[in-house]
Amino acid sequence: MRDRKPFAPLLPFKSIQSSISFAFSCLILVTITVTSLASYQLAVYSVERNSEGYIEEIMKQVNTNIQSYVDNMENISLLAMTNKDVNYYISSNNFIGNEDRRVYEKRISDLFQAILYTRKDIASLMVFGYNGRVVSDRRITSINPYAVLTDQAWYRNAKAAGGKSVLSAPHVQNIIQNEYRWVVSLSRELKNSDGVTGEGVFLVDLNLSVITDLCSQINLGKKGYMFIVDNDGNIVYHPKQQLIYSNLRTEQIERVKEAPSGTVFTVDDQEGKRSYTVQDTNFGWKIVGVAYANDLISNKDDIRQTFLLYASAGLIVSLLLSIAISHRLSRPIRNLQRDMKAVERGNFDTQTVIREPNEIGQLGHTFNIMVGQIKRLMQEIIHTQENKRKSELQLLQSQINPHFLYNTLDSIVWMAEQQQHEQVVLMTSALAKLFRASIAKDTELVSIRVDAEHITNYLLIQKMRYESQLEYIVDFDRGIMPYKTLKILLQPFVENAIYHGLRNKPDKGTVTVRGYESNGLIVFEVEDDGLGMTAEQLERIWKPAPVPADEVLTISPKGIGIHNVDERIKLYFGPEYGVRIHSELDVGTCVTITIPKVK
Fold this sequence. Notes:
- By secondary structure, this protein is α+β, with helices and mostly antiparallel strands.
- Among the domains are: 219-298, PAS domain (Beta-Lactamase, 2-Layer Sandwich), CATH 3.30.450; 348-397, no CATH class; 406-544 and 559-596, Histidine kinase-like ATPase, C-terminal domain (Heat Shock Protein 90).
- The chain has helices at 16-82, 84-90, 98-118, 153-161, 208-216, 241-245, 253-258, 293-296, 300-344, 359-399, 402-417, 421-439, 448-465, 491-502, 535-541, 562-573; strands spanning 122-129, 134-136, 166-167, 171-173, 181-191, 198-207, 225-229, 235-237, 264-269, 272-280, 286-292, 445-447, 470-476, 484-486, 509-518, 521-528, 578-584, 588-596.
- Strands 1, 2, 3, 4, 5 and 6 form a six-stranded antiparallel β-sheet that branches. A five-stranded antiparallel β-sheet has the order 8-7-11-10-9.
- Strand 15 (509-518) and strand 16 (521-528) form a beta hairpin.
- Helix 11 packs antiparallel against helix 12 (421-439).
- The two termini are 50 Å apart.
- The model is unreliable at 547-559 (pLDDT under 50).
């Protein structure tokens, strides 16, 4: 046996006061350093996140404004879709003559001009019928002979969208002769009255000046800005659009295209560190806000110096306090250590005395409570283990009832003599299953399905024995079958119902066994319509002291009493669960068992 070396102290001090002072100093130094650095980083991070959140809200507001603007344009397209003159003019089934055609064109053109009069942001309104007819906001619509309608992207996309609005990328609109405007086109296919057949395409050309005004007013710091791209990566708006087209400036277009709405990603290159905030619109555009890190935190140096100042002051004060506190802590700690060693040796009657009204005094008070609790818990554990062993022993004794076995075998012999072979097989099989469940010792908890089968086999045997006196009903909800219950929990109550409730009844009686879920708990009920009990008999059931054998409800002459079954349930599941009995003389008895849901 090797000699153990004495425990080497972590600190090279013999005095508790010196050790505590040194430990506190090191702990305070590390804590303040780590806390200051973490607080600084958190402050910087918080400012950045708040700024990013502010930018995200701005992007959402811009998104809302642009969406509202586009919705207004869609409402104009709905106006064209619902206008009878427009629908009739482009319909392939109408019979408008050349003399009437001009009348329809004038009415439609007047309608479009009225819209343009109230909306200066719209460059033009046009309708292109598949029947070859064209009408616009102009009195006379002159189509550019060199512009092929089917080559226009807005026209193809509208036909492909099947009645939904399509918003194009910025482009030069050349469909009207001698006009070349830089616009964004909103186009939509107009349907026939059946809602399926397309009759033409409605076109709204929007001036880019409105979108430019919306975006140019947004302030994201000194250098921050925002831009808009469509699904294909084409730039709809950018404050430095000419530089990008000239390849003198680049943007993270590919990352923006792949980023979902609400994404924030950071880029750090020769232009500086900056964050991109992406917002998707309902019509396929992406609104992007770009903010530079230096703009987000303008007073970063001031924050750093403030944290250093406060950290240094806190460190000095904390070191002085640690020396004073360690001096007062040393004496009561020794007393507490002495009493703890006494408890370690097994003396649970030890009570430490610390009069200081500080944390050490509270620790001493808590120590006294803990010792008392440990002593009480040890006594409770001993008592609980004794009760558990008694319950397990009584359960083992009650698993095989010789009297029940004798009567059952006697019934089998009688059936065999009467050549009732099917009944013999049925009763023998039920008895085998019954005892197989009874002698299983692998676990105390079994599934409710197993206990339901056990009680069904038991009632089947009793039914064959007392056919003229007994009827039974077993009703278990399927939903509770996978949950756990104590093994052979219901048999004592069913047997009591038969032997003490129905056997002496002059006519046939019924035992009903139910199982269901209620308020998150598992509830079993064993009910009979037998003789019932008086209030005095019911009160004596709960007394643990022995009572006359003819009035004790047990599963066998030496079995488990109802009181012990109730204690067994409380032992495994807790004091809030157990057995309740309701009985009326000459009416019957209902036993309710409540247990928790155990998977």
